[in-house]
Prior knowledge:
The chain is of the alpha/beta class. It has 2 domains: 4-134, Leucine Aminopeptidase, subunit E, domain 1 (3-Layer(aba) Sandwich), CATH 3.40.220.10; 142-462, Aminopeptidase (3-Layer(aba) Sandwich), CATH 3.40.630. It has helices at residues 27-32, 36-45, 83-88, 104-110, 139-157, 165-178, 191-194, 196-202, 245-248, 256-270, 316-328, 343-349, 361-373, 408-417, 451-462, and strands at 8-10, 17-22, 54-57, 66-70, 92-96, 129-133, 182-187, 212-218, 225-230, 232-236, 276-286, 298-300, 306-308, 334-339, 355-358, 379-380, 398-399, 426-430, 434-435, 445-446. Strands 7, 8, 9, 10, 11, 14, 15, 16 and 18 form a 9-stranded mixed beta sheet that branches. A 6-stranded mixed beta sheet has the order 1-6-5-2-4-3. The chain has a 3-stranded mixed beta sheet with strand order 12-13-17. The two termini are 33 Å apart.
Amino acid sequence: MTDYSLLLKADTGQPARDIHLVDPKTYEDWLKVQPERHRTALAARNFKAKGHEHAILPGEAADDWSVVTSVADVGNLSSWCLAKLAQVLPAGIYRVADRDIGAAAHGWMTGQYRFDRYRAPKDEPMGPRVLLTRNVARIDEAVRVAQAVALVRDMVNTPTANMGPPDIEAMATTIAKAQDAALTVTRGDDLERGYPMIHAVGRAADRAFAPRLIEIIWGNPAHPRVAIIGKGVCFDSGGLDIKPSSAMRLMKKDMGGAAHALALARLVMESRLPVRLHLLIPAVENAISGNAFRPGDVLTSRKGLFVEIGNTDAEGRLVLADALTKAMEDKPELVIDFATLTGAARVALGPELPALFANDDALADALLRAGTEQDDPAWRLPLWSGYGDMLKSDIADLSNSGEGGFAGAITAALFLQRFVDEGTPWAHFDTFAWRPAAKPGRPKGGDALGLRAAYGLLRERYAPA
């Protein structure tokens, strides 16, 4: 795993290669004051200052070279404006000339992410590309966030055989020990009495992959209580309503919500935010066997509501419902959950934009603002109460799947809302946790979508001045 603390260092005037930033508006003026050798090199390269374009600028000596790259706006650097450079430049030490790097530090680090767990080691691995910054106070924070993103990517990219419920538990155990937090795990048949829907969804899995509810408690009990919940369906076959093979191919990523929740919780603890943190991860495999739950079954929830199963492939909301109920029992002042919950959200918003639902307008606005500031946008969809009728059941309090095929992301969120106490601010991220195509700093595969937005909100609300 990449050690991101090696990639961002304080600028103390040490030798480094310069990176010159230009944008389409400033390029011509910048070019006029460059030495002839630079103008000649750029003309030969046909450099046009387009997005993510870069060129090597020769120096007076053979090894005395620097770099120019084009960004969208030199006065407002995004997280991703240096990410491509971090992927293609030789190993070495670099500094951005004439300005601080700001948000671009994030893309510089995450651009060097590699998932190589299942690849034979190279004889001569590429060394780090180090970026210098004058904003020394922000180095530790930037590294923590990059490491959190990498944790999500690593967990989602890992196949289920190595990222099942026991593996998520082991990872939570390691993090809890490192932060001196209390860990509680309820496993297997012990779930049946207190968390019956988590038990029902996961009971068909092999004994080694028995369902469990993983909880971490951290922080001063006198501080505001914040609950973070993540859907941990480590593989989703669809259950008896089995998915086709094409839809099952990426279901190793159905624990992406758990990965987000665990990474966010670690950020909260590492940053020492003054909160009483309650992390809940229902970790299950939605498998098929003789004791799998069935379409038409009626499950009892922890809250006491009876849920008719209209579709066994709508299992994520069931395990989240029991976890939400448990979180509410301790009267949190804020609840955030993450889940790879619906294909409908992807149809509406595509793979890069998480759907955000919230029962509190101020909370939704703050999360959207934080997402914009962190280059981690989300899009709010409505908790449209008129669609609640789609969850009606003829024989139970509600059904787990809406009828008619309409508004799938909204009806899933409305189902979760039934397990949220009225008056408790709650936000739900329906995230894809996956990039089907690579972009600078964002490789194809597992990714954190909504994580930095949520952390930005928590830091803004709770961080000491």
